[in-house]
Amino acid sequence: MSSGASRLTESVPTASIEKLASELVSDPSQAGIDSAEPVLYRMAAWLEARALHPTFLTDHERNKVALVAKCEGRTRGPSICLNACLDTAPFGDANSWSFSPTDGSIVANRLRGRGSADSKVGASIIAHVADFITQGRLLEAGVIHLLFDADEHTGQFGGVRSFIEHISPAPQAVVLAYPGNEKLVVGARGFFRARISVFGTAAHSGATTRRGINAIDKLAALISMLRDAPLPDASDEFPLGPVASITEIHGGRGFSQIPDKATCNIDIRITPTFDASTARRWLDELVVRLDAKVPSPTKTTIEFDQSWPAYAVDKNSDLVRSFLDAGQDAFNKPILPEICGPSNIGNLLSTFGIPTICGLGVSYENLHGADESSDVTSIPASFYSYLTGTLNFLSRH
User: Fold this and answer.
1) CA–centroid distance for 382 within its chain
2) What domains can be seen in the chain, in order of their start residue?
3) In Å, how far are 256, 263, 301, 325 from 202, measured between CA atoms?
4) Strands 64-72 and 55-58, how do they pair?
5) What pTM was computed for the model?
């Protein structure tokens, strides 16, 4: 039996998808480094030329953080949002690339450059899906929102936050155009993030007496305790257990002073049974043990940063079944719904009661690394999975 993608090969606008994706890759949009406006304006021009009437979304400081558009059916009905990010991870060491991070060319069926996998090719695909549906008048009832987030890789998620604030009523589901087609992501661990400060007593590093208390030594003790502290295993209800990681360290200055303060960032991946409040208690208890083991004049402090809950979408829901059936047909292989370790905006959207899934996208190599690329031969299958999954969901819901 042929796959859905092979049956649609002639009607899938593959060349146009490749062209737009290539142009998007050529616009550098490294999160926190480059302005996102060039890539936003490029996508806006493409949508406007196809009468999809895009609108820019801004954050509270009036920075452009996203672009939205929509196509509407002939009658009122359910709604869904197709989302892809237009900002990217940083390039890293340019010398580690064998081609330019903004190459955008297609060589041996590989689209090359930063964002070719995550997620400018996905942005091009869902834009073409919306255009295909609009031009073919395929949507009987309902609304398809397009959200192109330009503040995703910063970790601020300004685009989706602005979307939730400005779009009413909120969509009944969100699908992220993430790369990869080995699994359909239907949930993720959440996170609890905090900054821990430990204290010591400053002194001259060359002193023979009054050596002080080295805050970096105390921080090292904390890191050792964190590494050895037990965390619960996965459960039958949620297949991944929590994990704690130190992700940033600061302390001391120069050479001649024993530091009296050192800080670290901690990221704790949380689950439904090891949630934010449980993570905070676990961390509080660890800090109490640290201060007893390595006493200093000032107690260790914990400054909360932010937390998103773990989430999981029912694997038997219309949303999951619609896209899983479409994806398996398109890629002509079995695909399982899975919960993943890294978080995504689905964690945030779950707090608004909006179910979110990720994929199915193109095959790729070197995500966020040097020589990032995607396989353009997987574009038709990805296009078909988003097209059919979207229409199936809206017709079932």
Assistant:
1) 18
2) 4-188+310-396 (3.40.630.10), 190-308 (3.30.70.360)
3) 10, 15, 18, 63
4) antiparallel
5) 0.90
